[in-house]
Specification:
about 250 residues, alpha+beta, Rossmann fold, 3 domains, four-stranded antiparallel β-sheet, three-stranded parallel β-sheet, globular
Amino acid sequence: MNEKVIEGYPRQVFLLTDGDVSNTQGVIQMVRKNTKFSRVHAIGVGNGVSLDLVNGCAEAGKGKSVVISDNENPSEKIIELLETTLTPLISKVNLKYGNQNQIQSIVPNPTSIPYILKDEIANFYITYKGPLTEKQVFEFEYEDSVTKLPYKSTLEVDPSSTLNQPFVDKMAHFKVIRSLENSAKDGVNIEDQMYYVKVKDFKKEAIDYSVKHQVLSEYTAFICVGKELVDGQYQEFKNKGTHQVQI
């Protein structure tokens, strides 16, 4: 699946399962490591199917998943999935931006997306090494797989007028940490998941990043130390909140 595809013929892999496996994470890791030039869609059949396996393989394979219960007519969901994957799509995805030295990460890496399916939303989370002081311009380029015509959309990010969105900020850091974890566990090439500054130890980077941005990773945890509170100290303790540390 890692062999380059013929231009104009996107490779789509359909995984069909009616149960579970003894090593779910191993299968998901194998899918993640072998989908550089293809996308894996998972179909689960029956009430006993493993949702972790079906959804995990589809997520790792940058694809879609459907689950069909025992008493359900599979035609509608199968046809919907086939229509999504076999209709014209967007290819040759590229994201251009200004000063690359200011950017810490882009998730996902635009060069790691083989194509974008019909009605699929493409989100790019971009983090910077420091606060923005001037306007940034991004150009999203792509090609229609049928007409072969190129298209381009321009987006301006002005730090003076951009609203503060804590949820989006945390989501971006979460995506970065997940990519670092995948590279640490599976040996997946980091460039196949996101653009990121050069690091040697992905596990250590995931831990440091998690602590810095206060977003949980597989290698960190929130620890609560309970002590007796006397009258009047509860509000003080509550105001301090929580803080994630490395131990």
